[in-house]
Amino acid sequence: MKTDYLIVGAGFSGSVCARVLADAGKTVHLIDKRPHIGGNAFDQRDAQGVLIHPYGPHIFHTNAKKVFEFLSRFTTWRFYEHRVLAQVGEQLLPIPINRTTINQLYGLSLTEDEVQGYLETVREPRDPLRTSEDVVLNSVGPDLCDKFFRGYTRKQWGLDLSQLSAGVAARIPTRSNDDDRYFGDSFQFMPADGYTRMFERLLDHPAITVRTGVDFTEVRPQFEGSHLIYTGPIDAYFDHCYGPLPYRSLRFDHQHLPDTAQFQPVGTVNYPNDHDYTRITEFKHLTGETHTGTSIVREYPQAEGDPYYPVPRPENEALYKRYAELAETATGVTFVGRLAQYRYYNMDQIVAAALKTAQDLLDAHAA
After folding, report:
1. Residue 76 pLDDT more than 70?
2. Beta strands 28-32 and 208-212: pairing type?
3. Do 127 and 41 fall within a single domain?
4. Do residues 234 and 321 lie in contact, with contact meaning Cβ atoms separated by under 8 Å?
5. Cross-referenced Pfam families, in alphabetical order (predicted)?
6. Is the pLDDT reported for residue 1 higher than 80?
7. Residue 62 in 3-state DSSP?
8. CATH at 233
9. Which of 6, 15, 199, 334 is deepest in the core (most CB within 10 A)?
10. CA nearest to 335, candidates 346, 320, 347
11. Dihedral of CA 150/233/250/96: which sign?
């Protein structure tokens, strides 16, 4: 089959690449093994008509104006600032930790100026910051670490904080003010018509052919001569020749509560120390929709299943680098995305990486 590019994976990485290349006059054949586009960001209405995210909550946020402007071609936006509470004992407390968290937890009345001084008295200085445990103890000390982070991490990753690279915990700030937003980015919005509708518009181009429910290995021989853009797990592409890269998976328990207008006060509540699940998300907070009932999802991290998160540990990074060396020598194929680059990317980082990848391919072709 004659086409300029075969793209494997119809999530953000593959779809953004497809659109940039198509806009530049290239023909693109985009496939995905799932029966839908959008990857993990795919959304749909449940049986009761509530818009939900089958693969867990996806909240868009970015400081990259270029990324926001690109996606704005394909959606209007609903302003939304995500807020998360953590259940600690009988209390629901803001996370990331802020002044309110500390004052309510310990019965204090610290001012903003006093919060940092308090944290200085409880923190355990660590240098260098090699692990996530180092990061958390260096920032907030052992008690806050145990109440908010250690148990959650064990559930989320199946590992202790001391076994994870520093970058995981470094994603979560600690604040001395009352800012209770989960993200601090300049652009915080949700696609007004949902992610799936945004993907439909993104892929609505005469030069893009989309096929879902397609296994890459079965159709690959049909596209000899087409440049391949691969967004799946890099170890799978190379038949796990160096052994499997560790990924963390998730199981989702979706539930509709027919006579409950609102289940919880914010979009997501974390459970760092109780229950087998890590968090509950209520979708109506995210979408702004109204309904007589409400739909929620509980997330249960697990070792087996579809890969969601690369596991950030030094030994895993070393194994990935062996696969990355193979990727550099492979001809006619480009790797991009969270699974292909073994990176714990946010959505906006994936879009930025895809924009750069597509432009690099166009520049190389023009050279």
Report:
1. yes
2. parallel
3. no
4. no
5. GLF (PF03275), NAD_binding_8 (PF13450)
6. no
7. strand
8. 3.40.50.720
9. 15
10. 320
11. positive
347/353 Cα distance (integer angstroms): 10
- List, for residues 8-41, the tens digit of each pLDDT value: 999 999 999 999 999 999 999 999 999 999 999 9
**Of all helices (H) and strands (E), which one includes residue 359?**
helix 347-366
Statement to judge: residues 237 and 319 lie in one domain: yes
State the Cα–Cα distance between residues 42 and 52, nearest whole angstrom: 9
48 and 99 assigned to the same domain: no
Q: Is the dihedral of CA 189, 192, 196, 198 positive or negative?
A: negative
Shared domain for 158 and 203, answered yes or no, is no
Distance CA 17, CA 10 (A): 10
pLDDT for residue 367 = 66
Q: Which domain holds residue 108?
A: 84-170
Asked whether the beta carbons of 338 and 344 are under 8 A apart, the reply is yes
The amino acid present at 295, given as its one-letter code, is S
Mean pLDDT rounded to a whole number for the chain? 96
Q: How far apart are CA 308 and CA 103, in angstroms?
A: 35
Asked if residue 58 is part of any domain, the answer here is: yes
Report the distance separating Cα 306 and Cα 308, nearest Å: 6
Report angle CA 277, 281, 283 to the nearest 5 degrees.
150
Spacing of C-alpha 12 from chain mean position? 11
Sheet with 5-8: strands ordered across: 208-212, 28-32, 5-8, 227-230, 333-335
* Residues forming beta bridges with residue 228, ordered by sequence position: 6, 333
Mapped onto helix, strand or coil, the DSSP state of residue 325 is: helix
Compute how many other C-beta atoms are within 10 angstroms of the C-beta atom of residue 142.
14
d(CA 189, CA 179): 18
Nearest Cα to 286, choosing from 172, 189, 201?
189
* Residue 234, both tokens: 């890099």
Residue 294 makes CB contacts below 8 A (sequence gap 6+) with 50, 256, 257, 260, 261, 262, 263, 282, 283, 284
| Within-domain flag for 284 | no
Number of domains in the chain: 2
Residue 125, preceding peptide bond in cis (omega within 30° of 0): no
Using a cut of 0.85, tell me whether the model's pTM lies above it: yes
- Residue 225, sorted as left (phi over 0), alpha (psi -120 to 50) or beta, turns out to be left
For residue 318, what pLDDT band results from cuts at 50, 70 and 90? very high
Tell me, yes or no, whether 176 lies in a domain.
Answer: no
Q: How many CB atoms lie within 10 A of CB 179?
A: 15
